[in-house]
Design brief:
This protein folds into 2 domains: about 40 residues; about 70 residues. The protein is an all-alpha fold and about 110 residues long. The protein is rod-shaped.
Length: about 110
Amino acid sequence: MHNTNSDEKQLVAQQKAAELESLYQQDKLAELNKEFEALRPKAWRAWSDFLLAAVWIGMLVWLAPDFYDQPGAGLLVAFIASTMMLIGRESQRIHKRIDLLKAMLQK
């Protein structure tokens, strides 16, 4: 009889430990989801990057007006702008793939 009572107490203790572990895992998962959502790119970020590039080009024109008189200046600015657009597009693609991977792991 003493052995059965001890086994029951041990079983209850194991169940409580499992419940605590489950709660800990849920809290940890909720914290990771919160951090993941905080790292998601914001919609305004693309517009701020575009505005920043326009400000830089405006400052270049203002501080060095003879820059655009150079033979390849327009081509250089076009190359820089296209490179920035490609990087932005690739960044969006990477974030979409990460979101898809997260969705696949949650299923």
